[in-house]
Design goal:
alpha+beta, 7 helices, Aminopeptidase, single chain, 198 residues
Length: 198
């Protein structure tokens, strides 16, 4: 079977990308902590992810498999950039009544994010029915080839032990200690790929 091609997605695919990320991340313990009510979880997570996907259209890159089975959302952190437009308002509109939980997540990510120039892998998402088939690897290798050519490091936060193992196989290493969201037992693992010069 011919593997799917990797395309650069734009504004027209933003909603579909946000839905794919929400579907891929639906079973994460951190997601259940963020939105305890399963009846509204999918909608709230999709609306939240779309804030960042919309921002990536202008200030990042969205690598989408042409069959919409997987996506990687990257941000350029080699220089200071703007926050998502109207972020506080959009966050409250998307995440109420759980906005404070998402703000706690933002604060945790900000506190652990490295200041050195890098590319940030915000989301690597593969549809649950296609996970384990090499699609995540294809998306990673697509960007890593470009980063290696440019000599750029990359950073991410792994959200499961399984994804952490995937990233370890692709050259990422732990960056500091894992951190927890609220009383969620599963941590995030901050990880770095490439040279780390203080």
């Amino acid at each position: 079977m011919t593997p799917p091609r990797i395309l650069r997605a734009g504004a027209g695919e933003a909603r579909r990308v946000a839905e794919l990320v929400a579907t891929a991340f639906a079973d994460l313990p951190q997601v259940a902590w963020l939105v305890p009510d399963p009846a509204v979880r999918s909608r709230i997570m999709t609306d939240n992810f779309q804030i960042f996907v919309d921002h990536a259209v202008e200030y990042g890159e969205i690598h989408l498999l042409d069959d919409h089975s997987g996506v990687a959302v990257w941000f350029d952190r080699t220089a200071p950039g703007p926050s998502p437009k109207d972020y506080d308002e959009r966050l409250a509109a998307a995440c109420a009544p759980y906005t404070q939980r998402f703000q706690e997540l933002d604060d945790l990510f900000d506190a652990h994010h490295p200041e050195l120039p890098h590319q940030h892998l915000a989301f690597l998402a593969v549809h649950p029915g296609r996970q384990g088939s090499g699609l995540g690897t294809a998306l990673l290798e697509h960007q890593h080839a470009r980063l290696d050519e440019a000599g750029l490091p990359a950073y991410l936060e792994a959200s499961t032990a399984r994804s952490r193992e995937l990233y370890l196989r692709h050259g990422y290493r732990p960056l500091g200690e894992p951190f927890h969201l609220g009383d969620c037992a599963t941590p995030f693992w901050p990880m770095w790929r490439g040279r780390f010069e203080r």
